Structures are given as C-alpha cells and as structure tokens.
Prior knowledge:
By secondary structure, the chain is of the alpha/beta class. It has helices spanning 24-35, 72-88, 110-123, 164-177, 224-228, 299-312, 363-378, and strands at residues 13-20, 40-43, 59-60, 93-103, 133-134, 151-162, 181-183, 186-194, 197-204, 207-218, 231-232, 240-250, 258-262, 269-275, 278-282, 286-288, 320-331, 345-348, 352-356. 45% of the residues are buried.
Amino acid sequence: MAGNNTDQPHPDSHFDVVVIGGGIQGAGVVQAAQAAGYNCLILEKNYWGSGTSSKSSKLIHGGLRYLQSWEFSLVRESLRERSLLLSLAPQLVYGNWFYIPLYKGSRLRAWQLRAGLTLYWLLSGCRSDARFKVIPPAEWPELAGLKTAGLKKVYRYRDAQTDDAKLTSAVIQSAASMGAEVCSPAEVIAAESTPEGYRVLIKTSVGQRTVHCRFLVNAGGPWANRIARRITPEPGHLEVDLVQGIHLLLDRKISDRCFYLESPSDGRAVFVLPWYNTTLLGTTETGFDGDPDQVLPTAAERDYLLGILRHYFPDYDGRVCGEMAGLRVLPKATGGFHQRSREVEFVENSHYLAIYGGKLTGYRATAEKVLERIGKKLGPASAGRRGDTCRLPLTPAAEQP
C-alpha cells in the first residue's frame, strides 16, 4: 500500500474514531487507536506528512536545549521515545554523534554544557553508548573544517536522526495493516455534532462523502484552528502563534557527523546535519501570520543560516541545492519563541479533541495521551486490542508487503 494511498472510505461509513490530519501526530493517534481495538479512519488533504512533519530537522532527540528551560519531564519522555524508536524502526531511525563547539565568547559556558550533558545522560538511563566526551585538541583538525580560531572545547554526545516523511508513512502503514482506513487526498469540508458523535463531510478525488464517528480528533497542526471553525458547533480552540522554520540543503556533505552550533548573533541552536548525500542546515524561528498553505523561505532566513555556516565552516564551498519551510504551533504568549515550552497541549469538548504542538520524537507518547482520553469517552473497544505501539515494528512503506 503506497504512502499516499488514494483508497476512499465507503459512503456513510461509521467509525469509532476519525482523525483529521496525516502528519506524524495524526498518524500516531490512528495507529494507537486502531491498535487498541477501535475502528478508525484518518483523513489527509495532501499526502502523508506533507506539512510540518516533512519539514523538520529530521531529528529523534531528547531536546538537550530544553534542559535550559527546566523541561525535565519533556526531555525524559523524549529520551524514552528515542530509545523505543531506535529499537522499533532501525531502518528509519539511527544514532549519530553530535558535536558542540565552544569558543571564546560563546554564551554557553563549558561547565553549563557539561552539567547539561551529564543530566541528559542520566535521563537517558545512563546507557554506556550514550556517554559524552570532550574531543582533545589534537583531533580538532579532523572535524570537517570546523573553525578552530578561538575554539576552547568540543563536546560529543549521542542522539538520532530519521527521515521524517518516511517515518510518518510507516506509522500510517502500521495502522492500515491493523485495519484502519487511510484516506488521502481527502479534505474535511464540514463536521457537525450529533448525539452519537460527529457527522463529517469530506471531499475526495471521486467526490463528496459523509462519514460518522463517535470521536473526532483534530490533528491539523498549523491548520487546526481552521478545521475547528468548520465544525458545528465550534468546539473551541487554542490561541497560537505560528512560527516559520526553514532548512537549506547544500550540495556537498560537510560530514557524516552532526554539529550543534550556537548562532553568534542571537545564541539560538542551529544544526548542520548529514542528509543523504547533502548537508541539511537549520533552522530559523520567524513569526508567521499568513496562509499555512503558502509557506516559503525568506531572503533574511537564508542569509541568517548561510552566515552561521560561513562563521563556523569558513572554507566550505558547497551551494544551496534545495530548501524547505514549515510551521511550528506554539501557544500564544509573551516573550521570544525560543523560550516557549514545546509541551503538547489539548483542547477537548465532548467527543472532540484537538492537538496543538508536540515534537516529532514524542508522537507515540502524545498518541497514548490522546488514546487515554478517547477511552474515557468511548469505553473499552469492542474489537479487543490488536497490538501495542511500544512493540509494533515500523519499516519503510516501500518494504511493506
């Protein structure tokens, strides 16, 4: 079954759960709910992971920088999920070494980084292969042309990478293999509350269809509030800021390893990562108030990232060969985007739940939280459990039978 399956649900189909949005969060929910024994349908207006879920930094990580804002529970959960995904999806999620250089004038101090990496290791379960180390100066010339002028220390630690779009498709295929209906392209035109749940009108490639469900999940990401406004009565929504982040692809691979860099202008974390035969550089944080369907990198964002690259790798001569832009969803608040929590938030109303935010790494844990809320509304599934997402293997969609 292809990742952007175009099979359509039958007219007037009845489901326990309908999920709107085929990014990683929606994929996780439909997998978890179908595994728990509910009869599920997921709808995606484009193709699986076509929004934010295919525009990420492609990292499965605990979020080392979140320790600075004391988000210990988020880091612990993410590290647990990283360990699970390394086991469940070895063809999609793979470990790599990340290097953090500290220079004279760096905002982050060596003692702070050492304390953070120690805590990161402790929260990961003290795995022997996750220990960090300091790279001796004699080895600095081997670090892919990293600038050594003013360099004081280089730390190395372990995290993981993935192909975010392929991972999303693999989770969708896992749900489909247990009997879930997966439908794309399919756009929700309207939904109406009924005594039994919701009646949902959808537009597919073959026309309009109506489906019924006992529970409706809005996993629309940047489109979540637009989706909420199509529901009668409107179930409520969370006031959010949409934050654009871009990545550039460079035609020459700098290294097979990863670099975690501090922007010299504002102190933000920026990654230089191997991505197939290219280098992935990102990301930015720019407020966005336009149409989520029209997200494009700006010249200022390109200059910002290329300036950081030149600062740390002055002799690198690769060229930009591609770019991508996606939107993060952050609860509206004062202060900079960089300091805001990445904890997922929910809006619930009767037999409806909307997901706001969340990380690629934690999609399965988020889905389990949604499943708990579904269970409280619907009770145990009549079909009986089909599987457990912490044990279900994930393989690339093309390799599925």
